[in-house]
Amino acid sequence: MDDLHGNQALDLYLKPSNQECPYINLKTLTDFPQFIVFAVRRGKTSAAGYTRFELDGKFDRIIADIDPHWFWLLFGENDCLCATLHSLDKETRKAILTCDVRDEPRVMGESLAYLSPQWQAYHVWMVLDPAWGWDKKQIQGADAIAEDYDAGETSVVEGTDVRVWTKLELASGREGASRHYPASDQSLPASSERRPVPGGWGHEHCDLCKTHIEAREFGYCDPGGRWICEKCYERYVMQRDLSFVDEF
Question: Are 24 and 127 a contacting pair, CB within 8 Å?
Answer without folding.
Answer: no
